Amino acid sequence: MQADSRPLKIYLDTCCLSRLFDPLTQARVRQEAEAVNRILTYCFSGHWYWIASDVLLNEVNRTPDLEERTQIKTWLTFAYQTVHIGVGEISRGIQLEALGFKGRDALHLACAESGEVNFFLTTDDRLLSRAKRYPNRLHIHVENPYTWLRETENGHLRNDRS
Hints:
5-stranded parallel beta sheet; 8 helices
């Protein structure tokens, strides 16, 4: 799946993880849920590294549905790395907010950059759209999990910033 021997580092935001608990009545929701499930399987098997963050954990802790919250917290114990929010992440988050990213989204992105992820995955259309406007201002690729996984499994994996 990739020429580089190092496993990919993947960041799944809260929207991705919560997608697994959404009603699967729409094709898009079903496709994204299946993609997130497959991505987690790759991560849990060690093919890819799942990078999490304090921002992710904080959002999950605020999830009102107890079953969803408990399950996601269990999955988070299998994350390869958890990026903690420090001065650098806060500073970078402020820079990203200046580009129009919402506060938590900016911190998610800042933590993902600190974790040196290859791909930040989200089902949030606003976040994805804004990220596509600023590809040269972000140090990571931001993609929809379904679209990205389809390209990755078809051999069109991009493991660099080119």
